[in-house]
Give the backbone structure.
Amino acid sequence: MPETLPQPPEVDRALALDHGLTSDEYDEILDRLGRTPTFTELGIYSVMWSEHCSYKNSTALLQTLPTEGEQLLAEVGEENAGLVDVGDGKAVAFKIESHNHPSAVEPYEGAATGVGGIHRDIFTMGARPICALDSLRFGSLEASRVRYLFDGVVRGIGDYGNSFGVPTVGGEVYFEDAYEGNPLVNAMSVGVVDTDRTASAAAETPGHPVVLVGATTGRDGIHGATFASAEIDEDSEEDRPSVQVGDPFTEKLLLEATLEAIREGVVAGIQDMGAAGITSSAFEMSASGGTGMDLYLDRVPTRETGMTPYEILLSESQERMLVVCEPGDEETLAEIYGKWDLNAQRIGTVTDTGRVRAHWGDDEVAVLDPAHVAGDDVPVYDRDTERPSYLEETRSFEASDVPDLEAADVEDALTTLLGSPNIASKRWVHEQYDTMVRTNTVVAPGPSDAAVMRLKGTEKGLAVKTDGNGRYVYLNPRRGAKIAVAEAARNVTCAGGTPVAVTNCCNFGNPNNPEVYWTFAEAIGGMGDACRALGTPVTGGNVSLYNEHPEGAIYPTPTIGMLGVVDDLHTQPTTAALRSEGDVTFLLTPRGWTHPDRLGGTEYLSTVHDRVAGDAPPLDLEEERAVQAATQALIRDGLVQHAHDVSDGGLAVCLAESVIHSDGLGLEATLPGAGRLDAALFGEAQSRVVLSTRPDDEASLETTLAAHDGVQAHRLGPVTPGGLRLTVGADTVLDASPETLAAPYEGAIPDAVT
Amino acid sequence: MPARFGVVVFPGSNCDHDAYHAAHHVFDQETRFIWHEEESIGDVDVVIVPGGFSYGDYLRSGAVARFSPVMQDVVRFAEEGGLVFGICNGFQVLCEAGLLPGTLMRNESLRFVCKDTPLRVENADTPFTNGLTEDQVVTIPISHGEGRYYADEDVLARIEAHDQVLFRYSTADGEVTDDANPNGSARGIAGLVNEAGNVCGLMPHPERCVESLLGGDDGRLIFESLLAHVSTVAA
């Protein structure tokens, strides 16, 4: 028999506000129910209507993104992650998700459970995760608190992924003051499933048993979703108990048992439990299936005594899933999960009542309409927008506000940039990650613009990358978001892939601030334009708002997870490392220009002149598409020895990185002159790729390019035995040894953290 | 003559599929998984105890695994002269089970480390290394948080006296230096055998580098050594 429960608190408007609901939302609940909600119901509404679960502030914008594509198998929002058909009977499930708020107060567990959560989203669909990527942003490493967060997040990601047994193969790490106090931790998982073995997240058939599988339920993480939908302030440390605790070993068991159960055909529907635990999975599965559920909460296996229905419903204990199955299959489920030492406990039944009813013994503690809690009837807000006033000041910047670089100072400027933590080697990070477990990693982190994974049993591979430059988006939200998509696609292209689809993670500040919301709306607009132009639909993702802290909002930061397909794994994977002395290097750009005279938003302007100003670098999507198509054609024709996109730090850094990654090889390059020297070397104009070809292939390269209108190749010079020699116009401005380049690049982050 | 491989699977093993893939798909050998609750390993020539986190390893790597039903039979098999190959976590399990001397501790850096490491071959006259030559340098990746080999001086002296060290971490030129030692292992020891020579523990992962597609294939030499040994014994 259930234990006697403490009397729940009286529900009134004040308590609703305490739960993070607005007064209007409370009225809406009263109106809809025709009565005062129970304490448990109030808890359910508060988590399910939080931004984290409901997307109430973002749905209207996200609906403008392109979601159609021949290869897409899952409808956006209907399943736990996007699903893309990659041929050969295989589909790829992939998604990126934020764990910013938990990581801000408890970096190790926050990051670890972010990794665990995103992997669960993937294997709930029946897909086995084959790699993870992490997009991370912190304040300046000069602050000890930032070093603590950085160290904790990296350890958390490593320990979880390494033990779970999925390689962490890429991502990005940026350091900007705007993220101090509110780091961004966006985790992406990529999984592979046979197209005829996918699982769905809907509870469609009344009479089906509802089974809770996995770990036991405790009091950890209650109201995590609500916490994640509020600003971080001085009191956030007190929310530490809202952060869940991860157990990668249990997750590994859950993975194996779940894939086995799906393989055995005993899963009719399945959803993982992340934010809002049993509540979200039960209401969302019912809403998706147009059904209801009767749940008996006293049957839930708990790890603590005296848990109330409220706590059981809202617990965010990790490594759990909700499964619905055909009657009779619950024994098989119990056998499979039991083999992996996990629970499979029937806690209810799918019904045709259109209500989720939660029972505790003989009492009904909640009776709610899933469509109202988690479906089409959830409130949706159109927020006010206002162009931020700071843009007046940042846009007023002209390159002439700073003196041009003297030739004699080029080496200093280049080594300063190579030693900037944003550009410097992230070896310190990725050597703490197992990058190769399961032996599919063809190109690991380091000398490549994107990671390349093989698909065992096929000749194909995947090229995967996350990208996003918050500084660009801050300076020009629309163009900055376009660049995030364009650069992610360009990275995948340079690695030998064809970009096919996108997952996004939208990290922004408080949506009630019209200036913040304007940046969000603009960024989504730009993202949509770029995804349409490049033919990469958005398959899903995640929104994280309220990324603010006492010192202000973060840079608006949409991060893009890009999935690309490598058609021939044996010939196409390409890296940024030079291959052979004598190869000839080219700068591929849109026809008509090689670099504009701009410095806005560059790492150079920020690092050398300490200015975050100007406009985001220029980008024209048609030009971008043309350059990527030409690069893909050259790689397919077997003409490319190395390829590297021009991005942070501009052309000089792009060339220096290739030299650093090429043991015993170097470059001589003559850059197009005219205009400012600093802009020629360090300007970050988009749609540019540096690649090399064998001397014998120069003519073939010209032939292939002739078929690509709108693209030109500027011959830079030969691959040499070592070092980097740069000439601009007629002047040699740099002649640096490999060691001169490598020392700041390799040393910056290890030196900063120790 | 082909070799029959058995790959032990603990619930937290995560390199089990990699070992299976190498033995079965790359070397085309008969290979089976052996679930940790099985009491007999069956008819095999080589048992691989793979990498991973056996039972979560929250206590001490491999400390719980040694008590599993399957390990009782692996010990029996080893004592009868069968070939047992522990990789990474498998090395830790074999030390905990008393099949190999010494133990593996937290890396000196207190951080997990995953990277390619050059190894100098110390003894090329064992079932695991007969395809290599002494002082040859091979590159095989490591991936561990607890790979610092430790044994007391008496044990180390005995290991050296019996030529039990198979590999030491080295520079690319084969010099064994502190800088080349990625985890603080005593005397740079990366892998060793028992006195009888039929049980091997190796922290680096040869099963991860048997295909040039993945960037290196020096690990093949170890698998080829095992195959050569099994066919010689059978002949």
About this structure: The domain at 1-67+200-380 of chain A is CATH 3.90.650.10 (Phosphoribosyl-aminoimidazole Synthetase; Chain A, domain 2). Residues 144-164 of chain A form the longest helix (21 residues). Chain A touches chain B at residues 155, 158-159, 162-165, 247-250, 252-253, 256, 340-341, 430-439, 441-442, 444, 454, 456, 569-570 (CB under 8 Å).
